[in-house]
């Protein structure tokens, strides 16, 4: 699962969203780092719908613009939870490895200066 | 498609959305246009470069996802082989899209590629000649065949059941009356084609030394071969007359049959068949093709000509009620009486 796909699933796990809503939520989740284009977003949605992770949950027309909402299916929720767990464990292992491993180059103090990773899980 | 964003932006989005497959656009185009408009912000008149690149990439990826892998795709395109069941919906959409007969005519046939390709190695003029012949015959077929029937046959081939295979998943069976070419029309095409072949190839054989090596060799071979062919043809015609007499005296009612006529463009198709025959004659007369093609063709078509005349005369006496169609005349020519045809079973996607 790519980072973008993961973020889309997390955004939909929070609540059902329409396409533009997903783009905004992903931007907020990634702290402004990930700006999805429409082509990328719909590629991810297509694959997620194909995999049974996501389903359409109705549509509304706002200001003459069609907005179709998408929501996570139970399978999708399980998948995104498993991925979150995997990332959290990965981050933990990474922190251990980097914290315990030998430091390279001159250090200015004890190796406690790493910021906390995986804060969003 | 409803208007989702104002004027020029929607036009720009619609243009770039063509990167996506047509049915994808049909289903999600409005929604995607709305997202593009939201992303672009108010007052945008066209898509920015980044969105365009994203759309083209996304569209190609969407096409890639729904179409079969390369080898099955090439097999489907060049030889009409069936794609895996997972892609049956793709084949269904391909057959349903407009201008199917022209798309079929434009597809490179595997045998054509081999013949043209191998002659390209020996003589480019020969390759060009064969390419002209096949192109003319391809367009002629598209003009002569019944497009509805061509589509139906493709549906049976790609979605229907066959030996050792089930109908494609998600298909439903419908029964439709079988479309059969009117006897008079089919007989006219047969006679016209055979007569054109016999004339063009006989004249070529009579006038070209080419493969024979000498005028004397030609002048002994050609009359004998053609005379023998004519004798065979007359015997065959007599047999056909006898067979028709026994096989077609009382044809049955055919409730599940629709009689169709030739396409209005059929004369152009016949002209192209003639062009293809003339092209082979030119290839031989100019020495580019070093084979007794015209003599072989002249012998075969001369042998068929009397029987084609008999079938044509018999077809003129049939009514348009579907009891006797072109296919019955051909079956009847070898003594097989018409059978009551069942309706045609088609598999379609709801």
UniProtKB/TrEMBL annotation, chain B:
State the superkingdom. Answer: Bacteria
Q: Which UniProt keywords apply?
A: Membrane, Transmembrane, Transmembrane helix
Report the transmembrane regions from the record: 73-92, 127-145, 188-213, 225-247, 268-289, 295-313
In Swiss-Prot or TrEMBL terms, this protein is called Uncharacterized protein
Q: Which organism is it from?
A: Cellulomonas chitinilytica
């Amino acid at each position: 699962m790519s980072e973008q796909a993961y973020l889309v699933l997390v955004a939909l796990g929070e609540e059902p969203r329409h396409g533009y809503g997903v783009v905004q939520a992903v931007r907020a989740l990634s702290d402004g780092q990930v700006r999805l284009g429409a082509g990328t977003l719909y590629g991810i949605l297509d694959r997620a719908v194909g995999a049974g992770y996501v389903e359409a949950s109705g549509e509304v027309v706002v200001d003459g613009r069609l907005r179709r909402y998408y929501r996570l299916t139970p399978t999708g929720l399980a998948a995104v939870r498993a991925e979150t767990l995997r990332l959290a464990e990965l981050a933990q292992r990474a922190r251990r490895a980097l914290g315990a491993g030998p430091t390279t180059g001159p250090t200015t103090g004890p190796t406690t200066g790493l910021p906390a990773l995986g804060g969003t899980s | 498609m409803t208007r989702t964003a104002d004027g020029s932006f929607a036009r720009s989005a619609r243009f770039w959305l063509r990167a996506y497959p047509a049915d994808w656009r049909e289903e999600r185009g409005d929604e995607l246009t709305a997202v593009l408009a939201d992303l672009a912000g108010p007052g945008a008149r066209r898509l920015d470069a980044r969105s365009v690149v994203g759309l083209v990439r996304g569209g190609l990826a969407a096409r890639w996802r729904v179409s079969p892998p390369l080898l099955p795709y090439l097999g489907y395109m060049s030889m009409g082989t069936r794609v895996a069941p997972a892609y049956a919906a793709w084949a269904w959409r391909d057959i349903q899209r407009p201008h199917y007969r022209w798309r079929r005519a434009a597809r490179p046939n595997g045998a054509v590629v081999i013949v043209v390709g191998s002659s390209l190695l020996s003589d480019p003029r020969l390759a060009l000649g064969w390419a002209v012949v096949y192109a003319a015959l391809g367009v002629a077929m598209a003009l002569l065949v019944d497009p509805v029937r061509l589509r139906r046959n493709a549906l049976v081939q790609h979605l229907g059941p066959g030996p050792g295979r089930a109908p494609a998943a998600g298909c439903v069976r419908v029964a439709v009356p079988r479309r059969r070419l009117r006897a008079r029309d089919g007989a006219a095409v047969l006679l016209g084609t055979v007569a054109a072949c016999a004339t063009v190839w006989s004249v070529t054989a009579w006038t070209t030394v080419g493969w024979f090596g000498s005028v004397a060799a030609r002048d002994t071979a050609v009359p004998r071969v053609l005379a023998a062919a004519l004798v065979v043809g007359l015997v065959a015609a007599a047999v056909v007359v006898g067979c028709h007499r026994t096989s077609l005296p009382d044809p049955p009612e055919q409730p599940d049959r629709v009689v169709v006529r030739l396409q209005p463009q059929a004369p152009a198709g016949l002209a192209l068949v003639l062009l293809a025959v003339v092209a082979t004659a030119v290839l031989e007369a100019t020495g580019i093709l070093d084979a007794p093609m015209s003599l072989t063709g002249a012998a075969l078509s001369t042998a068929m000509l009397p029987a084609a005349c008999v079938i044509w005369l018999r077809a003129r006496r049939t009514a348009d009620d579907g009891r006797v169609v072109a296919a019955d005349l051909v079956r009847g020519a070898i003594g097989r009486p018409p059978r009551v045809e069942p309706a045609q079973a088609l598999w379609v996607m709801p």
